[in-house]
Structure formats: structure tokens, C-alpha cells
UniProtKB/TrEMBL annotation, chain A:
Taxonomic classification: Bacteria, Pseudomonadati, Pseudomonadota, Gammaproteobacteria, Chromatiales
Keywords carried by this UniProt record: 2Fe-2S, 3Fe-4S, 4Fe-4S, Iron, Iron-sulfur, Metal-binding, Oxidoreductase, Tricarboxylic acid cycle
UniProt-listed NCBIfam families: dhsB (TIGR00384), PRK08640.1 (NF006391)
Domain 4Fe-4S ferredoxin-type: 150-171
GO process terms (BP): respiratory electron transport chain; tricarboxylic acid cycle
Full protein name: succinate dehydrogenase
Homology family: Belongs to the succinate dehydrogenase/fumarate reductase iron-sulfur protein family.
Keyword Iron-sulfur: yes
Cofactor: [2Fe-2S] cluster; [3Fe-4S] cluster; [4Fe-4S] cluster
Membrane-spanning ranges: none
EC class (word): oxidoreductase
Gene Ontology molecular-function annotations: 2 iron, 2 sulfur cluster binding; 3 iron, 4 sulfur cluster binding; 4 iron, 4 sulfur cluster binding; electron transfer activity; metal ion binding; succinate dehydrogenase (quinone) activity
Enzyme Commission number, as recorded: 1.3.5.1
UniProtKB/TrEMBL annotation, chain B:
Protein name: succinate dehydrogenase
Gene expressing this chain: sdhA
Residue ranges constituting the FAD-dependent oxidoreductase 2 FAD-binding domain according to the UniProt record: 8-428
Membrane topology: Peripheral membrane protein
Coiled-coil ranges per UniProt: 501-528
Keyword Secreted belongs to the record: no
Keywords (A to Z) from UniProt: Coiled coil, Electron transport, FAD, Flavoprotein, Membrane, Oxidoreductase, Transport
Catalytic activity, as annotated: a quinone + succinate = fumarate + a quinol
Main location per the UniProt record: membrane
Keyword Ribonucleoprotein annotated: no
GO MF assignments: electron transfer activity; flavin adenine dinucleotide binding; succinate dehydrogenase (quinone) activity
Subcellular location: Cell inner membrane
EC number of this enzyme: 1.3.5.1
């Protein structure tokens, strides 16, 4: 297909906010979209020439992006009401006018930029790592992992902390303690690792506490929006069984 | 924390920076880690292919020695050999460590690490994690650093941009000045040593680059402008097959050609038909035509040059002359192959192309063009040779030290391992390995340091942060009609055309003067943005300015090197292999002598030093202690 053949103009309606505590407002922009354009490429065009539909010259729209390949997770936002990465949202496949809003559940920094620090705090809370003695070579290999276990684990290791699942989850909120689906899936991943498993009890205790697994209402929103198709609710189900067993162990003390 | 614990700043949280952070924190030092954003979003996450290490898992008698030889030859002998030796020797241990961190490397049926073949070598030496190796490696170290954060050993300063180093009267680096990308606060931070791990610089060629937006080279340019030497800037790898895009060009792996993909253009560039309606007889399969024995599987640089020639010199790009800029296109065609075969062998490419082009490569040929991919050049760093073992001396404070005392560099922003060209899957290795080496070297440097940054007078820090705040003011004041994003686009177009795949001295001279003119246009800058909060135009404008400064180093270094070596191709100085002649033939042996004579002239490291009038270029010898150049590269 020839690039020139399908140029089109498209309207973006963007929810803007100048500062963290300022009031949000909407602005519309009409841009030319070339074949293959996506939401990030249009926002890049807008930086160069930021004039609203009404001809008013305004400050460029702040937004985040880095890889433009849907692997860094930076560019997630609400696009026509759905949380998704903007770089892989092709204009040709979106209904116009296209509504862009910052990712909900996270504090707005400015315009489409949000602060996802909370998600990383939650990763600390659930100890989402394999504890090693040190990052030096100890001349020992890690234990073997069957191709079947690998295939299951690999699904979870692709979480890019974009926050889409958190945005979609009815139980995640700025005033709620729930750690949310992405960090829970990392618990599933770490608990399955042959040595990561050594800290399983601690991780399970972390998610059995307030804001943990029991806050999940099983609404399944998370798994529907994850751009990496991470089986979040499968992880949550597995963790349900793990925590039940752990609770019994805690009760009878036979660890 | 022990009494000897010192404060170190690491700039950059890709593989290089995170490894340096781990090594330093584990040595008992306090690390402050700076990054433009959450470190796990760094460009390292983009690497899909894999990471090299000799594990010899496939019964092919692979050896560390062979990895060393492949790396040296791949780089056309331009890299110093002791660092290559140490990197290849330590690679298996590095992989084992990644594995212990829980990196989800792909497995053999026995549950061991799987390895595959990657461009330019004969052995299956590449470990991989599905199609997201870089992401998995990055997360492995990111998780470890997060653990150290909870133990109070690492403090992250994400959303802070490094602007400059602070030097004392003796020229020793004593800290940095950085800007909070939200509040725009400019602040100095003291440090007993600084490690720069700011990544590559492909954005200098934007949008024709496979690199992320963090790969601007601005941070490296800033320390260069403060006196750090920059080496081999003319060596930049262009990947031949990237899918086109307005925002960036995305990598389509070599495997597409390896598995039978054919590259072609319509014989009539003005042909407006859908590609599949163009009959075979009206297509020009130029790689097959020009390189009959290799055809579509010629090495990366040959393919890139051929595509360049077809589009830019012969004017045969798809769409022809009236397509304007968008004639930078050729077809990479998979449609003749068996659909099931393509789906199983090239699934990752199919999904990227479908996702980002909205088209199916099984139905229509992909449109591709070469793209700036990897900087072999970078900040000059030292090493200490181990007199007995031959590699780098472990733990020497000289390893990965720049020429500014107290300032170290690692990852893609250094120049150390790849010479004139990089082998596939060798740079995730060098980024990780160099990070660890730099961390260990800084620990040694600190143990010999008599006075730390606490003794440096406050005025040093105040002066430098005032200078940076003034620069911000200057950039923010509207002074004309020059938009920073447009300047960036112009820089990319200029570099792509004049300092790209094919070089010519007259073009390079023109590039140097255009770059000076581009620099002057910053005097008429207008950010078109007045916000004092999270002003991205300001940060971008400052980056683009420093990218222009670095582009000058690249153009000047390319101008200075009158030969063809690795990725640096200047046809006027090409020593062509006599056709149909092979080793032993007198014509070939005469060619070998010319090749050796050329090495005597040009086998040397290019070193640029900052000067207000433009870069000063000098050369220094290369350590060839392991393998002397006897064999010219021959891909016939
Ligand atoms: C598309 C693509 C695919 C690739 N695939 C492979 C592969 O398969 N195998 C392989 O071996 N190599 C591959 N490479 C190369 C490899 O990915 C990189 O060389 C490597 O990841 C670089 O790592 P790094 O740590 O040096 O830099 P990066 O990962 O780029 O990290 C740079 C860091 O510096 C920070 N930073 C930059 N400037 C500043 C500043 N001014 N202030 C504060 N922080 C700053 C950023 O925030 C970031 O954290 C690929 C490259 C590309 C482009
Ligand atoms: S299943 Fe649980 S985690 Fe997922 S959206 Fe529903 S409540 Fe949230
Ligand atoms: S689980 Fe999916 S949606 Fe949630 S943060 Fe990870 S990648 Fe994003
Ligand atoms: S820019 Fe990285 S996920 Fe979109």
C-alpha cells in the first residue's frame, strides 16, 4: 500500500491537566495522520505544532513514551475509554474522534503523564525478586527448569508494569490498599522459581495481609486489558490455593 | 554500612547502569541511581534476539577462544583485545548469574539453557528468553536493585536528568548537576565517583532508528563537552531491514532474509500497482543480482549499502521520484514462502508488523529501509592489561575509567568492545559485563581515594548548578522561530543522508557546515511552551543541542578516516577484492599486501577532544596482542 494513498485527518480529544492538583479540562486537535500512524506518533507531531481545533496555540501535551514497540510500558493511557499502550494503538483502527485521558488510579503529573510509583512500591511489598547471595559468579548453575514450567513462567515475566490492569481493576484505587493484579502475578512467578520458592512463605504472608489477595473481587477486568496477554486471573487463582495451604500451615505449624 | 562506605552516583538504569549499581552496592557503597524514568523502561528492554556466551550446549565444540576471535574479526580488529578477551571469558559466569536471578531463559528439553545461532558466527552461542531477551535480562537486575533499595543500599532518583559533572580544581569529578523533570529544579549532588551508563545515540538519526527515545547520546555529549574523550564516533551500525514508521523504524530481524525472504523493488520506480500485481519479470531483486552466491543473505552492512544504493543513488525506491521522502522504501517479501513455515519460524516479526503497520506480511510484502541501530563508538575508557593472563586486570581502578578522574563509563555509551562493527547478541553482553567491571573498578578507585567529595568546596557545586540553571533560562526565553522538535527532525534527516550508510568527503564537509548552522539556530530557539512544570520541550531542546554537538564529533571522525572499515564505508577508499581471485593467487596476495598497508595507516582508534571551534581528532594505537590482522574479510 502506498503511504500517500491513505492520509486522513483525525480529531484527538485530550483531557489535559496542568499540574497534579489542577482541574482537568478538554481540548481538541485536528491532525493529519499518515498510514501506519499511532497515538504516540500523533502526539509527537503535536509537540511541534500544538494548535487546537479552534486555532488557539497552547502548550504541547505532556505524555510518556520510550520504546515505541510496546515493551517499555511507559505510554499507557486511556484511549477511547480503554487502558492500553498508545504506541501500539493504530489510528486507522480507532473510532474518531479519539479520546485520550491519563491512566486512572494513578496521580496525574501533567496531561497524559501519571505517576506509577505506587506499583513499584507494591512490588517491594510482595518481595518480587529471587534472593541471591550476590551478583557474582559462584560457579554454580541455577537448577533446571522444565520447558513446560518455563513456558508457564515466561508468560508472567513479560509484565512491563504499564499499569493497564491496575487502571481497569475496580478494587484498585488511590484510597485502597489493594496491591493489584500485576504485583500478584509477580508473586506467582517468583513462587514458581526453583530458588525463588525459598521465600514463598514470606510472599504469601505479604499478600494474605491487608490489601492482599482477598481484596480481589474476581471481576476479570485486568486480564481483558493486559496488552501482554498475561493470565492474571489464572495467577490469582493459583495464589488462592497457595494462600489457603499457607493458612493451614500457619495454623498447624508444620511448615 | 562500613566506615569506608562512600557515595557513588550511577547515571542510567539500563543493563550497564544496573550492573554497576549491583557491584557497587555489594561492595558496601551507597549508590544514587539517576534515570530519565523508571529504570525498567530503559532501552535495554527492546533487545529481542539474545546474549552471547560460550556454553557449548549444542555439541559444536564452541570455545571461548573462538568467541574472542569472532568478536575481534567482527570489529575489523579495531577494538583493543584485552577487554574482549576478558568479556568473552567471563560471559558464561555472567549468564549463570542472570539465571540465578530468575531470568526466564529459553530451555532445552532437558531443562538446560537453550542456545541458538546468531548472525556472523558459526556456532550456536546465543542464549535467549523467548523473543524478549533484553527485557528479561533488564528485569532480572532491576529486581535485584529493588531488593537493595529496600535494604537502604540504593537510592533511586528516577525522573531526574543528568546535565553535567562537577569537577574540582584538580579536574577530579566530585559530583553532578541534574534536573528534576517534573519540578524542573536544578540541583547539584556530591559523589565520590560517577558512573555514566546512559546508553546509545541512535536518536541522532531519528526517526530512522531502531533505538528508544532515551538513546540520545546527550549525556555522553555533555561529559565530552566537559573534557571527556570520545572514541571511534564514526562507527555506527545500520540495520538493513527496519519497518518504516513516522515515530521510529522497528527492527525486522535478519532471520526474515535467512528464512527465504526476498528483497526487491519494481523495475519501474513509478509503478503504482500493488506489489503483488507486479509480475516477476518487472521486479528487480537487486541483492540476488549483485551478490549471486549469497543473494538475500549477505551480511548486514552489505545489505544496508545495497538498499542505500538502490534508493538513494539509483532512485529506484518504491514510489519513485514523486514519492518524495517516502521513496526510502524497498520490499522485503515473504509472500512466496509457505505460510505455515513463516508463521512458525518468523512469528515475532509477523506480529510486530501486523501490530505496527496494520498489515499482514503473509498477504503483502513488508516495506523496509536501513536504520541506525547501534553505536560502536562512545566515551573513551581505559583498561589495565593483566601481564600474565593477557586480559583486563580484574579490579583495576583503570578499567572503564574515562580520562576524567572519578568519572567512569559503561554500556553502550562507551567504545570498548566492538571495534568497527558489532556482532549480533554481543552488546547485551558488553553492556552487562562492562557495568559490572565499572562497578568493581570504582570500588578500587574509592579504596585509594584520600579525600571524598565532602571536602570539595560548596562553591564548586553552586557555580555549576547556577550555570545549568542559567542555560535553562536561556533555552526557555523565546528568541525566534526555531522549534526544538523540528530541529531534531532536521538533525536526523541530515545525519541519515550525509553521515549514514555511505560516506563521502565532500558530503561530510557539507554535513559539518550544516551541523554548525544547526547549532547556531539554537540562538533563535522558541520552545513554544512556557510551563514551569514537567516542561518536556525544555528537556528535549537541551538534549537536541547536545546531540548536535555529538553529531559534529561523528561527522568529523568520519571525515578524518579515509578508508573502509566495518560499518564505516567510504567507497572512494574501498580496497576491492579482485574478482575471481583467492588466497594464493598473485592478484589476491597483492590485494592482501594493500590491505595490510592500509592497516598500517588506519588500524588505530579515533579519539575526539572537545574544543570550542569543533572537535580535535587524534589517533592512538590498538592493542593487537592476541590476534594480528592477517586475514581480510571475504564474504564471497
Ligand atoms: C531494537 C534493538 C534491538 C537490539 N537487540 C539486541 C540483541 O538482541 N542483542 C544484543 O546483544 N544487543 C541488542 N541491541 C543493543 C542493546 O540493546 C543495547 O546496546 C543495550 O541494551 C544498551 O544498554 P545500556 O545499559 O548501555 O543503555 P540503555 O538500556 O539505553 O539505558 C540507558 C539509561 O540511561 C538513562 N539516561 C540516559 N540519559 C540520561 C540522562 N541525561 N540523565 C539520566 N539518565 C539518563 C536512561 O534513563 C536509561 O535508564 C539492540 C538494540 C536495539 C536498538
Ligand atoms: S480479577 Fe481481581 S485483580 Fe483482576 S480486575 Fe478483578 S478485582 Fe482486579
Ligand atoms: S500485567 Fe499486563 S496490564 Fe498489568 S502491568 Fe503487567 S503488562 Fe501491564
Ligand atoms: S512507548 Fe514503550 S510501550 Fe509504548
Amino acid at each position: 500500500m502506498h503511504a500517500e494513498a491513505n492520509r486522513q485527518t483525525v480529531e484527538l480529544r485530550i483531557r489535559r491537566q496542568d499540574r497534579p492538583n489542577a482541574a482537568p479540562y478538554w481540548q481538541s486537535f485536528v491532525l493529519e495522520a499518515r498510514a501506519g500512524a499511532n497515538v504516540v506518533s500523533l502526539l509527537m507531531d503535536l509537540r511541534e505544532h500544538c494548535v487546537t481545533k479552534d486555532g488557539e496555540r497552547v502548550d504541547p501535551v505532556a505524555f510518556e513514551h520510550n520504546c515505541m514497540e510496546e515493551v517499555c510500558g511507559a505510554c499507557a493511557m486511556l484511549i477511547n475509554g480503554l487502558p492500553r499502550p498508545a504506541c501500539s494503538a493504530l489510528i486507522a483502527e480507532l473510532e474518531a474522534p479519539i479520546r485520550l485521558e491519563p491512566l486512572p488510579k494513578f496521580p496525574v503529573v501533567r496531561d497524559l503523564m501519571v505517576d506509577r510509583a505506587r506499583m513499584f512500591e507494591h512490588l517491594k511489598q510482595v518481595k518480587a525478586w529471587v534472593r541471591i547471595d550476590g551478583a557474582w559468579d559462584n560457579h554454580e548453575r541455577a537448577p533446571r527448569i522444565s520447558p513446560q514450567d518455563w513456558a508457564a513462567n515466561y508468560l508472567y515475566s513479560r509484565c512491563m508494569s504499564c499499569g493497564c490492569c491496575m487502571a481497569a481493576c475496580p478494587q484498585v484505587g488511590s484510597d485502597q490498599a489493594f496491591v493489584g493484579p500485576a504485583p500478584l502475578a509477580q508473586v506467582r512467578l517468583m513462587n514458581a522459581h526453583p530458588t525463588g520458592r525459598y521465600d514463598k512463605t514470606e510472599r504469601l504472608h505479604a499478600i494474605m495481609a491487608e490489601g492482599g489477595l482477598s481484596d480481589c473481587g474476581n471481576a476479570q477486568n485486568c486480564v481483558r486489558v493486559c496488552p501482554k496477554a498475561i493470565p492474571l486471573t489464572t495467577a490469582i487463582g493459583e495464589l488462592g490455593r497457595q494462600t489457603t495451604l499457607q493458612a493451614l500451615k500457619d495454623l498447624f505449624g508444620n511448615d | 554500612m562500613s566506615a569506608s562506605a562512600r557515595q557513588v552516583i550511577v547515571i542510567g538504569g539500563g543493563l550497564g547502569g544496573l550492573w554497576a549499581t549491583l557491584a557497587l552496592a555489594e561492595a558496601g557503597h551507597r549508590v544514587m541511581l539517576f534515570s530519565l524514568f523508571e529504570v525498567m523502561r530503559s532501552h535495554s528492554a527492546c533487545a529481542q534476539g539474545g546474549i552471547n556466551a560460550v556454553l557449548d550446549m549444542k555439541g559444536q565444540h564452541d570455545s571461548v577462544q573462538q568467541h574472542i576471535v569472532d568478536t575481534i574479526k567482527g570489529g575489523s580488529y579495531l577494538a583493543n583485545q584485552p577487554p574482549i578477551q576478558s568479556m568473552c571469558e567471563d560471559a558464561p559466569g555472567l549468564i549463570r548469574t542472570f539465571e540465578r536471578m530468575g531470568v526466564t531463559f529459553s530451555r532445552t528439553p532437558e531443562g538446560l539453557l537453550d542456545q541458538r545461532l546468531f548472525g556472523g558466527v558459526k556456532h550456536k552461542r546465543t542464549c535467549f528468553a523467548g523473543a524478549s531477551t533484553g527485557q528479561q535480562l533488564l528485569y532480572g537486575v532491576d529486581q535485584q536493585v529493588r531488593r537493595l533499595e529496600t535494604e537502604g543500599k540504593v537510592e533511586k532518583q528516577e525522573w531526574w536528568e543528568f546535565l553535567s559533572i562537577v569537577k574540582d580544581v584538580d579536574g577530579v569529578c566530585r559530583g553532578i548537576v541534574a534536573m528534576d523533570l517534573r519540578s524542573l529544579e536544578v540541583r547539584a549532588f556530591r559523589a565520590d565517583a560517577v558512573v555514566l551508563a546512559s546508553g546509545g545515540l541512535g536518536q541522532i538519526y531519528a526517526p530512522k532508528t531502531t533505538c528508544s527515545t532515551n538513546s540520545t547520546g546527550a549525556a555522553a555529549s555533555r561529559v565530552y563537552q566537559q573534557g571527556a574523550r570520545f572514541a571511534n564516533a564514526e562507527f555506527f551500525q545500520f540495520h538493513p531491514t527496519a519497518m518504516l514508521g513516522e515515530d521510529k523504524t522497528r527492527l525486522m530481524t535478519e532471520a526474515a532474509r535467512g528464512e527465504g525472504g526476498r528483497v526487491w523493488v519494481p523495475k519501474d520506480p513509478g509503478d503504482r500497482r500493488e506489489p503483488l500485481r507486479i509480475p516477476e519479470s518487472e521486479r528487480f531483486y537487486f541483492l540476488e543480482d549483485w551478490y549471486p552466491s549469497y543473494g538475500n543473505t549477505v551480511p548486514r552492512d552489505i545489505a544496508a549499502r545495497a538498499i542505500w544504493k538502490v534508493t538513494r543513488e539509483l532512485g529506484l525506491g518504491v514510489g519513485g521520484a514523486d514519492a518524495g521522502e517516502s521513496r526510502d522504501r524497498v520490499y522485503l517479501d515473504l509472500t512466496h514462502l509457505d505460510r505455515n513455515f513463516v508463521s512458525t519460524r518468523l512469528g515475532a516479526i509477523l506480529s510486530i508488523y501486523r501490530k505496527f503497520a496494520g498489515q499482514d506480511p503473509l498477504e503483502t510484502p513488508m516495506e523496509i529501509f536501513p536504520a541506525a541501530h547501534y553505536a560502536m563508538g562512545g566515551l573513551w575508557v581505559d583498561y589495565e592489561k593483566d601481564p600474565t593472563r593477557g586480559g583486563m586486570k580484574a579490579g583495576s581502578p583503570r578499567n572503564h575509567a574515562t580520562n576524567i578522574p572519578g568519572l567512569y563509563a559503561c554500556g553502550e555509551c562507551d567504545y570498548a568492545y566492538h571495534g568497527a562493527n558489532r556482532l549480533g547478541a554481543n552488546s547485551l553482553l558488553s553492556a552487562s559485563y562492562s557495568g559490572r567491571v565499572a562497578g568493581e573498578a570504582v570500588a578500587s578507585y574509592l579504596s585509594g581515594l584520600e579525600q571524598g567529595a565532602e571536602a570539595a568546596p560548596a562553591a564548586l557545586f553552586e557555580t555549576e548548578s547556577r550555570r545549568q540553571a542559567d542555560l535553562n533560562q536561556q533555552f526557555s526565553r523565546p528568541r525566534g522561530d526555531q522549534n526544538p522538535f523540528r530541529l531534531h527532525r532536521e538533525l536526523g534527516a541530515l545525519m541519515t543522508t550525509q553521515v549514514g550508510v555511505v560516506r563521502d568527503n565532500a558530503e561530510l564537509d557539507a554535513a559539518l557546515s550544516s551541523l554548525r548552522e544547526l547549532e547556531q539556530r539554537f540562538e533563535r530557539l522558541d520552545l513554544s511552551e512556557s510551563s514551569r512544570w514537567a516542561n518536556q520541550s525544555l528537556a528535549h531542546a537541551r538534549q537536541v543541542f547536545d546531540m548536535v554537538k555529538l553529531a559534529q564529533v561523528m561527522a568529523a571522525s568520519a571525515r578524518a578516516r579515509d578508508e573502509c572499515r566495518g560499518a564505516h564505508f567510504k567507497p572512494a577508499f574501498d580496497l576491492a577484492i579482485p574478482q575471481g581471485k583467492f588466497p594464493g593467487d598473485p592478484e589476491f596476495e597483492a590485494y592482501r599486501e594493500r590491505w595490510k598497508a592500509n592497516n598500517a595507516d588506519w588500524l588505530k582508534t579515533t579519539v575526539a577532544e572537545y574544543h570550542p571551534d569543533g572537535p580535535r581528532i587524534a589517533f592512538e594505537p590498538v592493542d593487537l596482542g592476541l590476534l594480528a590482522p592477517e586475514q581480510p574479510r571475504d564474504y564471497r
